[in-house]
Structures are given as C-alpha cells and as structure tokens.
Amino acid sequence: MIVSELSTQVNDLLRPMGITRNLSAYSILCQCLELVCEQEDRLQAVEKDIYTPIADRRRCEPKAIQSAVRRAAKGAWLTNPEYVQQLAGYPLTGAPSAVQFIEMLYNALVRAV
Fold it and tell me: Which residues belong to any copy of the Sporulation initiation factor Spo0A C-terminal domain (predicted)?
C-alpha cells in the first residue's frame, strides 16, 4: 500500500472517532498501522514489534505508546461507540483494549482495499 494512500485511508478511518491530526495519538496510530501493514504478524507481539520501535523513534517508553493507543480507543468509544462497534464487527461492552483497537483499525484498512 502506498504511504500517501495509507495516510488518506487512516485519516478517513480515525476522523469519525474524533481522532484528528492535531492529537499525538493520531501519529502514533498511523505508525502502528504502518508497521502492521508491513507485516501482519506484528499483531502477535504488539509490545515488542509495534510499541517498542515507535517508542525508540520517539525516545519514550513502550508503555507511553500503549497508553496513547488506549486513551485513543477510550476517546473513540466515548465519541462514536456505534462506529467503533461497526469497526469491531462484533459486540463490545466498552472501549476496546489498545491491541483490539489496533487490530480493528488494521482490519478496517484491509477490508477497504
């Protein structure tokens, strides 16, 4: 997938949940999705294969990346729970976990292709 195309698709995916380019979680989610799009198996070891490389680039701890994703998922749930449910494709009783959220976004991108 071409990076500019991915960027447009991610923007279209995140905007209905209130996650806009001015939020740090936006760029973190973009980086997470880029890594997963490069290699889907990274979803099996999220902290090692996704959070850590992003944290290294940002000079922070992997837990900070996880926290940003978790806050974005919670914010998305509070802003537009119906859309989050639609992305999940299965019933949710509350905000998805950080890993669930990344996987949901990735699956939505794959379905859009």
Answer: 10-108
